[in-house]
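tl;dr need the bound structure. longer version: we got a ligand (oxa(dethia)-CoA) that a collaborator sent over and nobodys looked at where it sits. i said id run it. heres the input, straight from their email, havent touched it
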Amino acid sequence: MKRAKISALGCYTPPRVLTNHDLEQMVSTSDQWILDRTGISERHIAPPDIATSDMAAEAAKTALAQRGVDAAELDAILVCTVTPDMLFPATACLVQHRIGATKAWGFDLVAACSGFLYGLTTGAHLIACGSHKKVLVIGSDTMSRIIDYTDRGTCVLFGDGAGAMLLEAAEDGEPAGFMDFLGEIDGSGGDYLKMPAGGSRMPASAETVANRMHFVHQDGQQVFKYAVRKMHEICKTLLERNGLSASEVDLLIPHQANRRIVCATAERLGLPIERVVINIGKYGNTTAGTIPLATRDALESGRLKKGHTVLFAAVGAGYTVGASLWHWAY
Ligand code: UT7
């Protein structure tokens, strides 16, 4: 079995920034409330002509350029998103064509905020079985397209962004790469965070549009309580089954949904906050984009280094839950 390693990383966020002060002009909220309850100060918003595949392609090109890999060398492209350009064709096909990945197959993966971790694990297994040499995993979400900017309970939370990680096989004996993954889904929580219309259950109609059913609907408190409990549980179980204590984790890179969820997870695990990456302040919740964006920031600030043991963790709509352990390769 080959061991997959992350060999390059690229991200993209659209230039326009929507601040908490901007939101104060749009809904009844305040910079202080948003900061205190979520940790978010600002988020990036895509212009009308930019869709999920555009951000994904930019992130992909940056990752490939970093490693000097031609898109034609890719064996597979996995795009993790809940905001595809269209219901079909898959965004992976649009990205494949755009970047010229002439040999690659691929697909979209829908697991909301856990999407990137599910994609990373799937990609790692494609590498492990030896049939794939280079797999590109992309998390890209244009959340602003499905957010109701009259609903203060959700519109302050989300932003747009994308990130891509290139997976390749580690050299024999190289102490780098994928260690383990644990995932869980729990459909009993499906009603607490969803976009009700636009699928086969409730196709688009004048009525669904009038009732604002094509936007994110969330019971924030339910999701919050579940996320706090499960982020900790899944990390603890994964560490235990790998014989690791929290003190052996160099960096926790969690999904960025709410600063309080991340801090509660760190506290329950007994991890000092210095070993946790929190960048929600600048981006909000970009759904499948948060983990690559947070990893990029950790790398650029020098906090993430070659050889580090990294714990990724996420909870999202579905519910979906996931955590994975990696030795950082570069
Ligand atoms: O990516 C995974 C999915 N998402 C999540 O993980 C999000 C999980 N949930 C959360 O992060 C939090 O539940 C929220 C940030 C969404 C809300 O924070 P909260 O502390 O749970 O607030 P709440 O819903 O209990 O609301 C408290 C009060 C309410 O007013 P009353 O009823 O006490 O008068 C809300 O109406 O805050 C009010 N409120 C706001 N006030 C100002 C809700 N949203 C806002 C707002 N500005 N934007």
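gonna send this back to them w/ a short note. The mean pLDDT is 97.
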